Amino acid sequence: MSGLLRRAGIGAATIVGVAFVPFLGPFAPLVGGGVAGRLSEPPEDSGAVAGVTAGLFASVGVVPLVLAGSALAATVSNLAAALVVSAAVTMTVYVAGLAAVGGYLGARSVQNDPGSGREQIDRLRQQYVDGALTELEFERRLEEVLARQDRTRAESASERQTEPERAESRR
């Protein structure tokens, strides 16, 4: 759980930082969620969960503003206070939702990156040495990483084939 919170914190900091970059601000949750998702460790972690958590962390800073704004708006009318709260809820859903998409895409980019297989194997070895994985769990996850690498290599090879080579391999 602390790993998820760490990744979400990094993603939230990214969201806040990118929000101030001109023209990128509306996409900050996508970028921050992507960072949190990219840091996720498949298969036990969901990039979307890391992304949505990062989005919620980034939205927490708005709570005091919403409380103050709704209290001020309530002096005008209850409708104004309701509008302030509904705008804050809409913003939170937008940030969390876009961060979840970014987290999902970030995690997928790690899974589909053939260069990351070595890093995943090294990470698994370290987890095994640290005692975080049993021998059986280590072997199962290692087989998953190796199978994923084999699929990626096969897909890459088939994409590089010319049309005559594909026709020949079908025969």
Q: What characteristics describe this protein?
A:
171 residues; mainly alpha; 8 helices; 81% helix
Task: Report what the structure shows.
By secondary structure, the chain is an all-alpha fold. α1 packs across α3, α2 crosses α3 and α4 packs antiparallel against α5. It is elongated and about 75 Å long. The model has no long low-confidence stretch (mean pLDDT 83).
Q: Nutshell version of this structure?
A:
81% of the residues lie in helices and 0% in strands. With 171 residues, the protein is mainly alpha-helical.
Fold topology:
Elements: H1 2-19, H2 28-38, H3 47-60, H4 63-76, H5 78-111, H6 116-129, H7 135-160, H8 163-170
Helix pairs in contact: 1-2, 1-3, 2-3, 2-5, 3-5, 4-5, 6-7
Mean pLDDT across all amino acids: 83
**Outline type:** elongated
Beta strands, count: 0
Strand content: under 5%
The biggest beta sheet is recorded as: none
**Unreliable runs:** none
Number of helices: 8
Radius of gyration: 22 Å
What gap, in angstroms, lies between the N and C termini? 51 Å
The helicity comes to: over 70%
Order of helices and strands: HHHHHHHH
The secondary-structure class comes to: mainly alpha
